[in-house]
Amino acid sequence: MSYPDRVRILNLRRNLNQLDSLAKEKNIIFRKTREELNACQLRIETLTMQQKDIEKEIERGKAAGNSAAVFRLQATQRRLCGELGNEKDLESNIAAMLNENVVSMEPYQTATI
Fold first, then answer.
1. Nearest to 111 by CA among 20, 13, 14
2. Taxonomically, which superkingdom (predicted)?
């Protein structure tokens, strides 16, 4: 094997190692983003359940004529609505990042097959 061939092989091996490292980094980012999305979806589910519970409590408070509790619960409901809106915005941002990561990983996935 000639010297230029060996140099070329070494350069190709170095490039391949760099691509492998980059693919591993992208994979780690993808997994972390997926975990963030799952956590966000869990928070959305929790907030939704809390909202339903608060709505039931508001109805019970109205039926009992407990206006102080109703006002307090309505404030809590408004806070939960705000948090839920924020979480849904975050979810869409994370989903967009996840899709972007999937698209950016496609060239590396085909190279490793």
1. 20
2. Eukaryota
The two structure tokens encoding residue 10: 């070494």
Q: Is 91 exposed, middle or buried (0-12, 13-18, 19+ CB in 10 A)?
A: middle
Work out the number of other CB atoms within 10 angstroms of the CB of residue 29.
15
Residue ranges of domains in the chain? 3-112
Longest dimension (CA), the chain: 93
Interatomic CA distance for residues 76 and 51, integer angstroms = 9
Q: Which pLDDT tens digit goes with each residue over 51-97? A: 999 999 999 999 999 999 999 999 999 999 999 999 999 999 999 99
Do 7 and 92 contact (CB within 8 A), yes or no?
no
Query: Which distant-in-sequence residues (6+ apart) come within 8 Å of 31 by Cβ?
Result: none
pTM of the model: 0.77
